[in-house]
Amino acid sequence: MMQNILIIGATSAIAEACARRYAHAGARLFLAGRDHTRLRAIADDLRVRGAAQVESGICDVDDDQAQEAVIAQAFAIMSRVDIVLIAHGTLPDQARCESDVTYALQHFHTNATATIALLTRLAQRLQTQGSGTLAAISSVAGDRGRASNALYGSAKAAVDACLSGLRQRLHRHGVNVLTIKPGFVDTPMTHAFRKGLLWAKPDTIARGIERAIAHRRSVVYSPWFWWPIMQAIRHIPEFVFRRVSL
Amino acid sequence: MSRTESWGRYPRVRQRTVELHRRENLLAAGDGSWLPHGNGRSYGDVCLNDGGTVLHTAGLDRFIAFDPATGVLRCESGVQLHEILALTVPQGWFLSVTPGTRFVTVGGAIANDVHGKNHHVAGSFGDHLRAFELLRSDGTRLHCTSSENTDWFAASIGGLGLTGLVTWAELQLRRIASPLIAAQSIKFGRLDEFFALSGASDRDFEYTVSWIDCAARGKSLGRGIFLRGNHAPAGAGAARAPTHSPGLPFTPPISLVNSLSVRAFNLLYWHRQRQTMRRSVGHYAPFFYPLDGIAHWNRMYGPRGFLQYQCVVPPADAADALLELLDQISASGNGSFLAVLKQFGNRSAPGLLSFPRPGTTLALDFPNDNGPVFALLDRLDAVVSAAGGAVYPAKDARMSGAHFRQYFPRHEAFIPYIDPRFSSSFWRRVMES
After folding, report:
1. Of B54, B55, B203, B407, which is least surrounded by CB within 10 A?
2. Residue A98 contacts B where some CB pair is shorter than 8 Å
3. Which fold does the domain A4-241 belong to in CATH?
4. Which domains does chain B carry?
5. CA of A39: which chain B residue's CA is closest?
6. Integer Cα distance of A88 and A111 in angstroms
């Protein structure tokens, strides 16, 4: 059966890697993102790779009305949406977050508030539809606040709690809610970092996401080894944790 | 700045890497000189820029259009040939020209104007290039085809990435009826048999290439196995792509390739095939890309890396020149693990600095011993130069500037097309020495 897929933040590296996998399987895709030229380049690529149909809509997730409009457009074109993937995000500079409240809240808004707004709208639609998967890319950073990325981590923690609540609510309506927790991923967002052994390619994450969606999982760490790492980090007692730098 | 190496793992350089992701962006890579860098599969230093910056094209990996009716494919320059094959073979289309590895980018294949086993009928990669866009450091975008900006077209094909960044390219693929190759391998005892086999096969076989035992001495010198094949007709059956072996997970502390293992390997390779002629029908991958199945095979040569050497000698005295080359190699005791021989077609290549030209090409690789092998390669250069031949820049890390300029007489005509911000370790080596 052909799958209908809506991707928000479709120009992000992980989203694009996921879209390629679904295109290869012959899916129909709707891409939402900020940059028209970029969306068109990705849409052309997905058509060549085998997508049955690719449509796109311009949407800055920080714009509340644009959110509503693009979701309405996607549901109008596809009538039934099997998978929604929320993939937008920013990586704020933590040092600046500590001295510039406006900057910090602006990034919190994009990564948390805007995501919660999207989830609220999409949950409503999928609940009415009575089927589908609502997947959002969170981060291992949401598992515990750390000095090195406290603002980013707290935004992801907010999203995690929202997803968990939605998962309970939508379960009895036949809708699966998936929390995706990638570790370090080598993407344009992280180009400034030195890459080591723990870094993964976007396609590795995409493979994990595709599988987790197919198996209707609740939470997926990607790559898998982040689950034990984060279990360990979560269980360090605060009186020890406050002394370490992570 | 970080340490980077090419496929031969020699030389090692320090360079900055800037990742490209969007073909519509202008180039902004900071101070110093720039050089496009695809998948780093050229062997020597054409893909390196010591002290400068490389523009890594891995993120320019989008397809733009493919027409399964005509076999015309347009894609960004960082797309690798294996990705094209995965897309088009199931739809009945194959690369018109492919080198011996499918892990190269389209941009790299253009910049080195690569060739394959079908040079005698199809020419080089550039012969099947319909168009590309060249982005210069000043922001100019040139649409280049064989009828538009033709001088830029000819300069950039085989232009070693120096004329600007190729952002996208349009290729003409060739029809196939099956993913299989019907192949024959034929043993030959002497070099003149190789020439006879080549002459007899070039008309009826699209692909011809030959392995030659360069560890053999005396009357065995010049023996080898001639491989020829064609795309199989429809209904030849199905074959699964071979699975990849795990390859070399780390670099052994010393080279596994030495005079003993070279002798043993070549002897085994010669005796593995008992009958004079063997026929087979199989998946295209092992036929075209025998080494792609072994990940990181280049690590086999240990921490110092290895040197590839590929030359072409013109037809007039190809036989004498080849015998002299083989004699030199055999006498040095520094045999090549795999030596490959192929008769190029009688045609001129599309690029100003293209390597393929009429004659016989010989490709060899030698472990880097930091000494004698360089002297041996200089002696080989003396033979090639005297015969009026050439050495392939994509595989070179050491030829002299004087030899390069002799091998590529059109380099003077090429120079005006170099982007003022672009340079490479190779180019500085052959033009400033």
Report:
1. B203
2. no
3. Rossmann fold (3.40.50)
4. 180-400 (3.30.70.2520)
5. B22
6. 8
